[in-house]
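For practice. Any example?
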Amino acid sequence: MSDKHSDNHETNTKLAPSAAVSKLQRLHTERYLNRELSWLEFNARVLDEARNPSVPLLERLKFISIFMGNLDEFYMVRVAGLRKMVQEDIKSSSDSPDELSGEQILEQIRKRVLELTAFAYDTLQNEVLPSLASEGIEIVTINQLPAEAKATLGAYFRDNVLPVLTPLAVDPAHPFPFLTNLAQYLVVLFKDINYHSQLGSPPIGLVEVPSVLPRLIPVAWKADKKQFILLEELVKANIGTIFLGYELSEAHPIRVTRNLDYTLLENEVVDLLKSVQRELTNREHQEAVRMELGGKLPKTVMEILKKELHVSAKEIYESPEPLLIPGLMTLYHLPIPHLKDPAFNPRLPMQMMSNEDLFALMRREDILLHHPYDSFYPVVELLQIAADDPNVLAIKQTLYRSGGDSPIVDALIAAAENGKQVTVVVELKARFDEKNNISWARRLERAGVNVVFGFVGLKTHAKATLIVRRENNKLARYVHLSTGNYNSNTAKQYTDMGLFSANPELADDIGQIFNILTGFNILTGENKLRRKHIAPVLKKLLIAPISLRLHLLELIKREIQFKKDSGKASIVIKVNAVTDKELIDALYEASQAGVEIHLIVRGMCCLRPGIKGLSENIHVTSIIDRFLEHSRIYFFHAGGKKEVFMASADMSPRNMDRRVEVCFPLESPDIKEHIVNHILATYLADNVKSWILSPDGSYTRRKRGEHEQEVRAQQKFIELARDYGIKSIPYDMAIRHNTVKEKGTRPVARAKKSHVKDH
């Protein structure tokens, strides 16, 4: 991206927080930014990728879809929680260190969301869709089509859509129906109805636009174009065949967002699985926290909706059509490579060039994987060979978000069927994945796996695998630890770090953690059994909720002492969120002592950097690019020793207090050098996709100096993987490759003559 291009984009963007947000925050607190408002600024940075002309066209559509999907989750959980907090007169939010009231936060959220969604629709309607049309990809209306195409669509409607639809009348004989969370409905008004206002509300109709049908319907009438019509547009055009005898006056799409937050109380839970299943059923009928409306409805109809859905005017968001923008992602999957980021196929690490199995490789040295640049396949291979190896006695693993068709789950089932002792700690409360997790947990149980559901008051968020193997009449243990989930799909979309190791002390610690997870809860005071509080003695690992925050505080304070003693001290932390008050205060103290601190924070950051006398030595950057930044890395200069940790945890209260998390050290000199001098250094040098946080909570794109070389961190990592990794067969095939069935061969791409560039 050229300097000129970058400057033009920055000039045109209007995504900085409103002055009211900054003024209100400064009025109430000088030390902290609000968690929810900071999250909205993260989503604004996501949206800015959609507004950036240098981003390929279909990738821009993807970023708008991600922005809108993020907002859905934000309202279902964070706004729902704030709304309940206000209703129950709770004065502050426990997860945000600032002192804004719930009413103030909700007011600022609404204002900012209105600004951002206006930008999103402006980008979609005035930039992305017209540009796609110029590329021969169009979303059209019925009126734009010739008679022949209309007839074809009419037949499609009769054969494929009409049988699925259900007209829902709202009149004295038909009560207002329940509107499913996030589903799209058409509110239908009719012509020439014999209605008198004194008799009550006008009759209206509702039709759910079925999510089981394709949202975009191909219209084949121009050979040089790919044209589609929206499903709701087709339904709207055929209302007369749904509500017989009535003629359409107008129809507008609406969506309702409901409260999907829930809390399981320890003293009320008898069976965790049944409690979660019950909550999943109940929460589908929770109160509405937002209503989205395409266009404007008559006042009388609006009053009906507000009354029946129990929403106020402040919870109604009017916008242009179409609603449900993520449904347009069908276009993204069209085979048009020049409108997307250049293809990249993850590589295998160089250690796997030999024919040695992973156990032998791990005995020789620790192995680091940097996803998605390094393939997730080695993790799958480790479990496959463990499942088949007669010397392997036991496999233990935590699963937070895996996926129903996961090769990880397949390997665990194969291990159990081969007589291994297999234990899996499944987190039932992984938000929005509860149903999937319950489904494949049952599948694991049927195969003979010992499935444990963790604790009621804590989520098991640690990512760990332990394999016990008999070698030379002794037991050897192998571990895999990661910053991300055991999920082969997200492993090609998220940046994460994983470590293979045969370190016996690390294995001892992991063994203790699994004993804790499958035993009684000694991590909190919520255990019903009388017992002494005995903290586990760990040699290498830091664990939440027992000691992780305490150890991080000690590491920060130690840097302060190094600064006083030698004048040399620095901290670099890469996480997804910095919202924990105690940790923020410790970083402030370190800054005041002169410690140089660099924070690479993808999302929420409640710390205010660059304030003289408080945080002038703290620099906060955020990187938003084609892959979701998800890895957590903690670096401390440590008087020149340079200690590096990786973790499943961010610097937030939920990670420190309400989740089982693992933070592990990197001790291989080569791996430490690679993390510090290549990975962290490259992130800090990024001047293409990085944003700088200002003290007032606003973010600005980092500008590249006149003679500064362009550095785009994720692209640099792709280049490094291509230069130093082993070329694999296509990822979706590689991840299904079974090294056992293929007699030890790995999914390495065979060299062949081709004029196609190697991706």
Remarks:
- The longest helix spans residues 102-134.
- The longest strand covers residues 248-258.
- The chain is about 35% helix and 20% strand.
